Amino acid sequence: MNLVVSRFQPEINDSRCVTAIWELYYSARDTYDPLVSNLTESEPLSPTFWHNLTEVFASNDTAFQVYNTFLSRGGVVAACTDACKTAAIVVCGR
What we know:
This protein has helices at 28-36, 47-59, 61-71, 83-92, and strands spanning 4-12, 18-27. It is of the alpha+beta class. The chain has one domain (4-92). Helix 1 (28-36) crosses helix 2 (47-59) and helix 2 crosses helix 3 (61-71). It is flat.
């Protein structure tokens, strides 16, 4: 499984029609793989990869905060520390 997250940004033209513009928000492989395992391009992001990533989140607050920022999908980033962080990591699969 390769996860690439895109976000929709509407563009309103002069006739008030909305045109969809999709742009890459982030690539899970590019963002998280260097923190976990350095997979080859053809290797999938396996359940083991995701489990190992939750272990990184538990021990590396900077990595977790990057994840938390991506949750906002470009909107307002809600602070997530202590109990929030623990709950998020448990939900992720730790």
